[in-house]
Design a protein that fits this description.
Largest sheet: 3 strands, parallel
Order of helices and strands: EHEHE
CATH class of the domain at 33-71 and 95-105: Alpha Beta
Structural class: alpha/beta
Number of strands: 3
Number of helices: 2
Oligomer: single chain
Radius of gyration: 16 Å
Strand order of the largest sheet: 2-1-3
Helix content: 10-25%
């Protein structure tokens, strides 16, 4: 019997790196050109974890840094969306060029 062919990946997962983005070529993983930051808490973890998995795999494929955060950044009275600013700011020094925020949901 012939071996079954592997199922193709879902269409939303890119198959080739973008040619227009220069990825840091150093192999020490200490500083990247592009980083993606995402934060979620336990109240949305059920659907945020699969999203984070896809983001992590996307970053691995393209050589980007991925920063997954699972706790609030602040205990202030401000609502949780304000934590996005703190989360991005926290990782600015770890990335050379671009830090992107990606909502977990």
């Amino acid at each position: 019997a012939a071996a079954a062919a592997a199922a193709p990946p879902p269409p939303w997962i890119p198959q080739q790196p973008h040619d227009d983005i220069v990825i840091n070529s150093n192999n020490n993983n200490t500083l990247r050109n592009i980083g993606i930051v995402s934060l979620y808490t336990s109240n949305i973890a059920e659907y945020a974890k699969p999203s984070a998995f896809l983001m992590r795999e996307y970053c691995k494929r393209h050589g980007y840094a991925f920063f997954e955060m699972t706790e609030r950044m602040s205990s202030s009275a401000r609502s949780a969306p304000w934590d996005k600013l703190l989360a991005v700011a926290m990782h600015l020094d770890a990335v050379q060029d671009v830090v992107l925020w990606m909502d977990a949901d």
